[in-house]
Structures are given as C-alpha cells and as structure tokens.
Amino acid sequence: MLLIALNIFFTLTSSAPLADFATDQDALLAFKNAITVDSNVVLSNSWLTNTSICDWVGVSCGIKHHRVTALNLSNFGLHGNLSPHLGNLTFLQSLDVSSNNFTGVLPTELSKLHRLKHVNAASNNFSGEIPRGILTNMSALEEIVFNYNKLSGQLPIDMCNNTPKLKTLFLKENQIHGKIPTSIYKCSEMEELSLSVNQFSGNIPTEIGNLSMLTILSIYDNHLQGNIPSSIFNISSLELLYLGRNSLSGSIPTNLDNLVNLKELYLNTNNLTDWVPKQIGQLTSLKYLSLHENILTGHIPKQIGNLSALQALDLSSNKLAGNISSSIFNVSSLRFIYLGNNNLSGSIPVNLDNLLNLQVLSLKSNNIIGSIPKQVGNLTSLLLLDLAYNKLTGELPKELGNVAELELLATPFNDFLSGPIHFSIFNLSNLKIVDLQQNHFSGEIPISITNASQLIAIELNRNSFTGPIPDFGALSIFYEEANSS
Ligand SMILES: *[C@@H]1O[C@H](CO)[C@@H](O)[C@H](O)[C@H]1NC(C)=O
Ligand SMILES: *[C@@H]1O[C@H](CO)[C@@H](O)[C@H](O)[C@H]1NC(C)=O
Ligand SMILES: *[C@@H]1O[C@H](CO)[C@@H](O)[C@H](O)[C@H]1NC(C)=O
Ligand SMILES: *[C@@H]1O[C@H](CO)[C@@H](O)[C@H](O)[C@H]1NC(C)=O
Ligand SMILES: *[C@@H]1O[C@H](CO)[C@@H](O)[C@H](O)[C@H]1NC(C)=O
Ligand SMILES: *[C@@H]1O[C@H](CO)[C@@H](O)[C@H](O)[C@H]1NC(C)=O
Ligand SMILES: *[C@@H]1O[C@H](CO)[C@@H](O)[C@H](O)[C@H]1NC(C)=O
Ligand SMILES: *[C@@H]1O[C@H](CO)[C@@H](O)[C@H](O)[C@H]1NC(C)=O
Ligand SMILES: *[C@@H]1O[C@H](CO)[C@@H](O)[C@H](O)[C@H]1NC(C)=O
Ligand SMILES: *[C@@H]1O[C@H](CO)[C@@H](O)[C@H](O)[C@H]1NC(C)=O
Ligand SMILES: *[C@@H]1O[C@H](CO)[C@@H](O)[C@H](O)[C@H]1NC(C)=O
Ligand SMILES: *[C@@H]1O[C@H](CO)[C@@H](O)[C@H](O)[C@H]1NC(C)=O
C-alpha cells in the first residue's frame, strides 16, 4: 500500500515538470519550423533534439526548474513568421527577436506570457495590429520595444488597464493611426514613451501630464493637432521632449520653468503662434532648443542667454522680430545658431568672440543692418557663416582670414557690402562654397583663392571687381557665368 502510494506520489511530482519541459521544446521546435531562412545557420546547427533546449544558442533556462526564461535571437538573420507556440513558454521573462526579418503578425498568444517583463521585436517587418492583450493586460511587463516595423491599426482605448509596471513603450516608425488613448495615464510608472513617426491624429491627451516619471516623451512626426497641453510641462522628470513635425497650434505653455531636467526640446515644424516664453531661461539643463518652422512672433527672449548648457539654438523660419540680444552670444557652449528666415533687425552683437565652440552661424533672410563685426575672426571653430539676404554694410573684416576651418562663406544679396576682399580671406584652404554675389565689393579678386583646393562653387557676380581673373581651374565656368551677368 505504502509502495503504491509512494509510486503515485513520485509519478505526480516528476511527470508534471517533464511534460512542461516537453512543452517548451515543442514550442521552440514550432518556432524553428516557422523560420524560412536561417541565414547564420544558428538554429540549424544548435537547435537539435539530441541536446537539451537549455543548451541551445539563444535560449536561457531557470536553474531549478529548467524552464525557458529568456530567448535572445537578436540579429540572427532569421526570416519567417513568429510562431504562436511561443505563447506556451509559460516561464518566459524576456523575448528579444529584434533585428531579423520577421514578417506577419505578432501572435496574440504572446499575451498569455504573464511572467514576461521584456519584449523586443524592433527592426523587423511585423505588420498588423499589436495584440490588444499586450497593451492592456500583462501585469509583469516592463518594456515593449516594437520600433521600426510595419505595425498598423490603432492602440486599444483601454491600453494600460492592467500593465502597471510598464516603463518603456517604443513604437517609433510604424504605421499606427488613430488617437493616443487617454487611458495611457494608467501606466503610471512609464519612463520612456515613443510614438514618433506614425500616423497618430487628434489632440495630445492632457492625461499624458499624469505620467509623472516620464524622462522621454517622443511623439514627433505624426498628425497631432490642437494645443500642447500645459500638463506636459508639469512633468519635471522630462529630459527629452520631441513634439516636432505635427500640426500643433496655439502658444507654447508658459509653465516651462518646471522642466529643470530637460536637455532637448523640439517643437519645430508645427503651427505654434505667439511669443517664445521668457520662462525658457529657466531650463538650465537645456542643450538643444528647436522651435524652427512655426509662426512665432515677438522678440527672441534675452533669457535664452541664461541657458549655459545650450549647444544648438534653432529659431529659424518664424516671424521673430527685433534685435538679437547680445546675451545669447554670451552662451559659450553654443555650437549651432540658426536664426534665419525671420524679421530680425538691428546689428550683429559684437560679443561674438565668446562663441569659441560655434560651428554654424546662420542669420540669413532677416533685416540685419550694420557691419560684420571683426570679432567674427575669433570664431575658430566656425564652419558655416551664412549672412545672405540682409542689409549689412561695410567691408568683410580681414579677421575672417583667421577662421581656419571655414567651409561656407555666404553674404549674397546684402546689396551694400563693399570694399576689397582681403587676400587672407581667400587664403582659407577649407573653403568649399563662397557666395558674395549682389553686393558692392570692388578691387581685384585676390589670387590667394587658388589655394582653396576644396572649392566647389564660387559666386562673385553683380559686384564691382576689377583686374585679372584668377585661375579658378575647374571652377572657371562659375566665374564666367557669374561675370556675364
Ligand atoms: C546530435 O545530432 C547531430 C546530427 O543530427 C550530430 O552531428 C551531433 O553530433 C549530435 N550531438 C550529440 C551531442 O549527440
Ligand atoms: C540580446 O543580445 C544582444 C546581442 O548580444 C544584446 O545587445 C541585447 O541586449 C540582448 N537582449 C536582451 C533582452 O538581453
Ligand atoms: C501550444 O500553443 C499552440 C498554439 O497556440 C496550441 O495549439 C497548442 O495546443 C499548445 N501546446 C501545448 C502542449 O500546450
Ligand atoms: C526581408 O525580407 C524581404 C521579403 O522576403 C526581402 O525583400 C528583404 O530584402 C529582406 N530584408 C533583409 C534585410 O534581409
Ligand atoms: C522589410 O521589407 C522590405 C521590403 O519588403 C525590405 O526592403 C526591408 O529590408 C525589410 N526590413 C527588414 C528589417 O528586414
Ligand atoms: C488578463 O490576463 C489574465 C491572465 O493572463 C486572464 O486570465 C484574463 O482573462 C485577462 N483579462 C482580460 C480582460 O483580457
Ligand atoms: C492627473 O493630473 C491632474 C493635474 O495634476 C490631477 O488633477 C488629476 O487628479 C490626475 N489624475 C489622476 C488619475 O491621477
Ligand atoms: C501642474 O502641477 C501643479 C502642482 O502640482 C498643479 O497645481 C497644476 O494643476 C498642474 N497643471 C496642469 C496643467 O496639470
Ligand atoms: C499650418 O497651417 C496651415 C494652414 O492651416 C497648413 O497649410 C499647414 O500645413 C500647417 N503646417 C503644419 C506644419 O501643420
Ligand atoms: C539670467 O541672466 C541675467 C544676465 O543676463 C542675470 O542677471 C540673471 O540673474 C540670470 N538669471 C538666472 C535665473 O540665472
Ligand atoms: C537695435 O539695434 C539698433 C542698431 O544696432 C540700435 O540702434 C537700437 O537701439 C536697438 N534697439 C533696441 C531696442 O535695443
Ligand atoms: C579675438 O582675437 C583678437 C585678435 O585675433 C585677440 O586679440 C583677442 O584677444 C581675441 N578675443 C578673444 C575673446 O579671444
């Protein structure tokens, strides 16, 4: 009797894990079967039934129960569909099939994996909708990375209903449309959210502002409309905020000053109106500020001069007016300044010489007057100087000849820049493009231009140059065309 009882006990306790172990093997073999091309022959060489699945390349098992806990087949050169049998790997915590060439849908069975914490299917050709269960009902899930696929459909309106641990949701570069569900606020531990480069429409839900742990909010390149909810600017943990390339309108919320951790702010290419809030000066961590291609008016706030970490400032293609505040040129960390295509007036601030890291200064198509300050010669990192279409007068400062790295020098269509060109300027050996057309430059064209061996184009027409034509080599055609007009 005891023997029989023991025997039954033994059978019960040992057979259950064995059966589950077989289930895992069946699931992996079904997965292997659905692979049409195994470019790196990893599965063909390693996934063999005479060895334990726990020894198969890309498979990890739990130490005690020998059940599959992680599959990492990233960048294995696999083509085919993702088998629904993966949903039978009940102990799976991490699934990474990124950077292969999977096609077809993400199987709904994945949402049965209630221990799953990480799922990465990025950089494949998955299509169809994201299984509803994955976005609504996976209580252990922390990370979803589905970037760079062809996923379509809409996000479920009850997303985040039971995904309380979700920290990362990356859906960048897919074809998902419809509204961003308001229920997204229920993912209250969300830290990184990217819905960029999709077809989302409607307003940005105010409820996103309740995601108080967000560090990345990236929803650029969609069809979003309406105002930027000021609630977003309440998320003081934000480090990267990308809302560019939508159809957002209204003004920039003024409660910007909460965003003390913000490093990058991209609101470019929208239809934002009104002023650039002066509170922007409080974003002391800011490195990149891009507000270009909007309908912003008023002055450039002088408080931008308080952004002591700023590296790139792009306010181009707006309707900004008034003088350029000299405070901006005090920000010595700046590498890129784009203020072109506005209605800026006044003269170029002479404290340019602080900008020792500046690589690009573009002030083109404004109404800037006065002369080009000689301090431009202190910009030893400068690669590109574009002052086209302004109302500048006076000579090109000979100090420009100190800007050894300069590749582009453009001052066309100022009408009244005048005087001779100093030979030191044309001595710059990295010059690729020189455009000085439509001004009043005079004297001889410095022969030193023949040292500019990288020159691709030179435009000198509509000036008052005299004397011999230097040997432009292959470029002579440009000069002749230029000279004929
Ligand atoms: C498993 O089978 C393959 C061929 O099917 C063979 O090459 C390999 O040596 C076998 N491995 C073991 C451990 O028996
Ligand atoms: C999978 O392996 C790749 C390459 O070894 C690694 O970069 C990646 O972090 C791994 N994925 C997971 C989820 O551990
Ligand atoms: C595993 O999953 C498949 C497809 O989802 C299902 O048809 C099958 O019954 C499952 N097998 C086991 C042993 O649970
Ligand atoms: C992925 O598969 C498609 C269709 O089979 C094929 O056209 C494409 O070249 C593949 N891409 C890569 C990166 O292997
Ligand atoms: C997806 O498919 C397209 C064409 O069908 C192919 O050009 C591309 O390389 C594929 N992408 C990946 C990541 O395999
Ligand atoms: C959520 O998942 C659990 C466990 O996987 C399942 O029992 C339940 O039916 C699911 N609920 C919904 C609403 O899908
Ligand atoms: C969301 O944030 C708003 C404003 O801070 C607050 O009034 C509201 O109670 C929050 N909602 C939830 C569900 O936490
Ligand atoms: C921003 O946060 C403050 C303080 O927590 C709160 O009073 C205010 O309602 C919030 N504003 C928005 C638009 O959520
Ligand atoms: C801005 O609005 C105009 C007129 O409504 C529209 O034609 C344009 O596409 C909009 N631009 C953006 C970037 O949304
Ligand atoms: C901003 O800079 C001005 C000088 O340009 C200075 O007076 C002011 O104290 C600064 N504000 C902050 C908050 O640093
Ligand atoms: C703007 O600049 C011009 C020329 O540099 C100067 O005469 C004028 O006073 C400035 N205006 C303001 C408001 O600073
Ligand atoms: C600017 O350059 C001039 C001469 O090239 C030099 O005397 C001056 O000290 C420089 N200024 C700065 C701030 O480096």
From TrEMBL:
<dbReference type="InterPro" id="IPR055414">
    <property type="entry name" value="LRR_R13L4/SHOC2-like"/>
</dbReference>
<keyword id="KW-0597">Phosphoprotein</keyword>
<keyword id="KW-0433">Leucine-rich repeat</keyword>
<dbReference type="GO" id="GO:0051707">
    <property type="term" value="P:response to other organism"/>
</dbReference>
<keyword id="KW-0732">Signal</keyword>
<keyword id="KW-1003">Cell membrane</keyword>
<feature type="domain" description="Disease resistance R13L4/SHOC-2-like LRR">
    <location>
        <begin position="277"/>
        <end position="363"/>
    </location>
</feature>
<keyword id="KW-0472">Membrane</keyword>
<keyword id="KW-0677">Repeat</keyword>
<keyword id="KW-0812">Transmembrane</keyword>
<dbReference type="GO" id="GO:0005886">
    <property type="term" value="C:plasma membrane"/>
</dbReference>
<keyword id="KW-1133">Transmembrane helix</keyword>
<dbReference type="GO" id="GO:0010082">
    <property type="term" value="P:regulation of root meristem growth"/>
</dbReference>
<feature type="signal peptide">
    <location>
        <begin position="1"/>
        <end position="15"/>
    </location>
</feature>
<dbReference type="GO" id="GO:0006952">
    <property type="term" value="P:defense response"/>
</dbReference>
<dbReference type="InterPro" id="IPR052941">
    <property type="entry name" value="StomDev_PlantInt_Reg"/>
</dbReference>
<dbReference type="InterPro" id="IPR003591">
    <property type="entry name" value="Leu-rich_rpt_typical-subtyp"/>
</dbReference>
<dbReference type="Pfam" id="PF00560">
    <property type="entry name" value="LRR_1"/>
</dbReference>
<feature type="domain" description="Leucine-rich repeat-containing N-terminal plant-type">
    <location>
        <begin position="23"/>
        <end position="61"/>
    </location>
</feature>
<dbReference type="InterPro" id="IPR032675">
    <property type="entry name" value="LRR_dom_sf"/>
</dbReference>
<protein>
    <submittedName>
        <fullName>Non-specific serine/threonine protein kinase</fullName>
        <ecNumber>2.7.11.1</ecNumber>
    </submittedName>
</protein>
<keyword id="KW-0832">Ubl conjugation</keyword>
<dbReference type="InterPro" id="IPR001611">
    <property type="entry name" value="Leu-rich_rpt"/>
</dbReference>
<dbReference type="InterPro" id="IPR013210">
    <property type="entry name" value="LRR_N_plant-typ"/>
</dbReference>
<keyword id="KW-0418">Kinase</keyword>
<keyword id="KW-0723">Serine/threonine-protein kinase</keyword>
<keyword id="KW-0808">Transferase</keyword>
<keyword id="KW-1015">Disulfide bond</keyword>
<dbReference type="Pfam" id="PF23598">
    <property type="entry name" value="LRR_14"/>
</dbReference>
<dbReference type="GO" id="GO:0004674">
    <property type="term" value="F:protein serine/threonine kinase activity"/>
</dbReference>
<dbReference type="Pfam" id="PF08263">
    <property type="entry name" value="LRRNT_2"/>
</dbReference>
<dbReference type="GO" id="GO:0010074">
    <property type="term" value="P:maintenance of meristem identity"/>
</dbReference>
